[in-house]
Amino acid sequence: MNANPVEDAPALQLEPNKEIKSTTSWQVLGEKIIPGLTLVLALSAIVLGCLMLAQNSFEIYSISMLGIICVAYQLLFVDIYRQEQAWKPKVALISVFAFLALLVLRSLPEYITGLQVNGVIHRSLFSGIFLLAIGIVATEISIFYLFGATPQAEDISRYPLILVPVAIGLGVYIILILQLLLKGLPNLSWDIVQKAYFNYAWPIKTTIDDGWPIWSIELRSQIGLANHLSGTGLLMLLTTLISLPFGVGAGIYLSEYASGLFENIARFSVTALRAISTLILGMAAFSLVNYSGNTPLAFIFQGNYFDGNQWNRMGGSFFSASLVLSLLVIPIIARSTEEGCRSLPPELREGALALGASDQTTLWRIVIPWAMPNIVTAILLGCAEAAGSVAVIMFISGRGDYGVGIFRPVTSLAYLIFDIYYASKSFKLAMQPYQFTAGVLLLMITVGLSLAALLIKRWLVKRHRGE
Amino acid sequence: MTNRRIQWTTARIVSFILTIVPVGLFLLVVANLIWTSLPALKEVGLPVLFSTKFSDLLSGVYTPGEYGLLPAVWGTFLVAGVAQVIAFPVALAMSIFATEFSVAGLGRLMEGMLSVFAGIPEIIYALLSIFVISVFIQPKFAGQGLSEAAIRALPGLPQWNAAMLPTSQSTLLGGILLSMLIIPFMAPLMMDAIRNVPAGLKEASLALGANRWYTLWRVTLPSAASGIIAAISLGIMKTIGDVIISAWVIGYVKSGMPVPLWDVLEAVAPLTSTGAGLLNGLQAGGSSTGPDIAVAYFAALLILALTFIILAAGSLAQRYLRRRYAR
C-alpha cells in the first residue's frame, strides 16, 4: 500500500564534473594563496584607512592602495571561478567599488569646499572612510572564501565587521586618556597637591602712636590644588552623609512596603531624577542660594569667608551644593538598594519569620545585610558622581581662595577644570598648566572609585551571600 | 502581637518619611522651575521665545530682548542626532562582541573597561576635546597648515570667513564627545537585552540550520529590539541633558538657524548651554538681568518636556516591540 519513501526517492547521481579529487597539501595551498593574499591586502587597507583618519599625510597611499585592491579582487574573481565553476558577482563588485572610489578621489582637490558647509574638508577624510568601508567588506569576502565558502565560514567572515568598530571605539578612549595622562602627570607633584590656591588683597592693620589704625594692603598669592582637592573630598563626604539615609530608606520602602498611588509617584521621581538634565538641578541650586537672600538661612546656604576684616558672602556653601548633589545620588542608592532587597531569596525571609523573628528583625538581620554589597557599591558610585559633577554646582561655585568648610564657598577639582577654560586672564595664566593635572587627579578619583565598586561588590557578594 | 505590629509600622513609617523627602524635593525642584520661568511668558512672550533670533554678544550687533530659542531646540536635536549616528553602531557592535561574537574572553575585558569608562565624568570628556581637535577636527575640517589667504582663495566657502572655520567649537565635535559619553551607558543595556533573549529561540534557529550570523540578525536582535530601543532613548536623554560638554565644545549662543539646516560644522548651541549661558550672565555682559533668568529657566523647562517626551516615546516603542515579538 504505502510505497517506501526511500525507494521512491530518485537515485543519487554523481555529477560528472564533481569527481572526488585527491587533494594534496600543495593543491590546498594553491587554492588558498589568492584569498590569503587578498585578505592581507584588505587588512592593510583597514589599517591604512585608520591611519588616514588620524594623519593627513598618509593620504598619498590611498590611490595606489585602491588600485591594488581593484586588481587583486579581479584576480580573486577569476580564481573563485576556477575553483567553483561559477561567477561570484559580489567579488567583482568590490573591485568595481574600489575603482569608483579611486576615480572619485583622483578627481577631488586636496581641500574640498563648497558643499554648503562652513569648513574646508581635507580629502583624507573621504579616502579614509572609503578605505575602511571597502577594506571591511573585502576582508569579509576574503575570509569567506579562505575558509571554504560554507555557512560556518560566513560566521567567521563577520568578525571584522564587529571587531573594527569595537577596536576603533576602545582605541579612541585609550589613546585620549593616555594623552591626558601624558600631559597632566609631569606637572603633578606633592608640592602642588599640598599648597592651596589663593590670590587676594590682605588688609593689614597697624596703629600709630595715638591708637589710630592705618590699613595697608598686602597682595598674597599662591598656586596649588589643595583647596580643590579637599573640596572634592568634602563634597563627596557631605553628599554621602546626606543621601545615605534617604537613599537606603527609599530603596527599602520601594521594595518592602510601597503600594498604591504613592508607589507610582515615588518610582517616577526616582527614575526622573536620574533622567532629567543636571542643568535643572544646577538651577535648583541657583534658586536655593539666591532666594535664601537675607533670610537667617543665608548663613547656611551661602558661602561665607573672612577676609581678615569682616565676614563676606559669595556663591553657595558646600552644604547647599551637597544638598542638591544628593538629589543626584539618592536615586543611585535607592535603585541599587531596591535591587539588592528584591534579589533576596524568599526562603531566607520565610525561614527567619518561621523561627519567630519579627519583621523588623528580619529587615535588620536578613534583608539589609543581603543588600549590603549593593549599598556599598552605590555609595562609591555616588561619590564618583559627586566628585565629577560640574553642572549642578557651576552657578554657585567659587574659585577656591577661601578655604574649605561646610559653610565656605563651594569649589571642586571638576569645577576648577571648567573654570580655567572661562576664567579671567590672570587666573587663567596662573592655573592653565595645572588644568590637565587637575583632570588627572579627578580621573584617578573617579576611576579609582568605580574600580573599587567593581571589586568590593565581587568581594562582598562572595562574603555575605556565599556565591 | 501588638508589639510586633508597632515595630512593623515603625519601620514602615520611617522608610516612608525617608522616601517622601527626595520625592518632595524633586516636586519642589520642578515647581520652582515652572514658577521661575513664568515671567518669561509674561515679559518676553511666546512668539519671541519661538523665533529664530537670539541676541549674540559676540556678533557685534547686540540687540537686547531677542530670546528666540528655536535655534537652540534645533541644536539639541542636531547634536543628539550626530551623537546617535556615531554611538549606536559602535555600541551595537560592542554588545554583539561581548555576547555572541566574543574572541577568547576579550568580551569580558571590554565590559570591565566600559564600566570604568562609564564612571568618567563629563568634564574629563570636555577636557579631552582639546586632543580631538588637534588630532581630528583641525587637520580634517579647518585646513591645518594652510595660510589664511590660501583658505580665502578656495572657492565656495559660504557666509563665513576663514577665521570662523570650526577649529574649536562645532556641533560635530560635540557629537563625537557626547557619543563617547553615552557609549558606556548604551552598550551594557544592549548586552543585557541580547542576553535576555530566551536561549530556546536561538537554539531552535541554530537547530534549523541557520548559522550564527543569520540567527543573530533574524532572531536575536529583533527579539532584543525593545531593550535596544531603551538603550537608544537613554542615550538621547543623556545627550540632550548634558551641559558641560555642550557649553565647552559647542558654545553658549547661536543667533540664527544654521545654513543649511544640517550643517554640523557650525556650532549650534543646544538648549542646555543656552540656558547655562543666560544664567551665567553671558548675554548681559557679566550678570544676568531682567528676563534672562526667566528665559534660562524656560529653556530648562523645554529640556524637561523633551526628556519626558523621549521617556514616553521610548516606553511606547518598547511596549509595541514587546507585543510584536511576543515571547
Q: If you had to describe this structure to a student in words, what would you say it looks like?
A:
The complex is a heterodimer of chains A (467) and B (327). With 467 residues, chain A is mainly alpha-helical. Chain A has 18 helices and six strands. In chain A, helix 4 (89-107) packs antiparallel against helix 5 (123-146). Chain B is an all-alpha fold. Chain B is 69% helix and 0% strand. Chain B is globular and about 70 Å long.
The poorly predicted ranges of chain B are none
Beta-strand residue fraction of chain A = 5-15%
* Helical content of chain A (DSSP H or I, runs of 4+): 55-70%
What is the distance, rounded to the nearest whole angstrom, between the alpha carbons of the first and last residues of chain A? 63 Å
**Oligomerization category of the chains in this entry:** heterodimer
Q: What kind of sheet is the major sheet of chain B?
A: none
Mean pLDDT rating of chain B: 86
Helix content of chain B: 55-70%
Secondary-structure-derived class of chain A = mainly alpha
Mean pLDDT of chain A: 87
Beta-strand segment tally of chain A: 6
Element order of chain A: H for helix, E for strand: HHHHEEHHHHEEHHHHEEHHHHHH
Spatial order of strands in the largest sheet of chain A: 1-2
Termini Cα gap of chain B: 46 Å
Structural class of chain B: mainly alpha
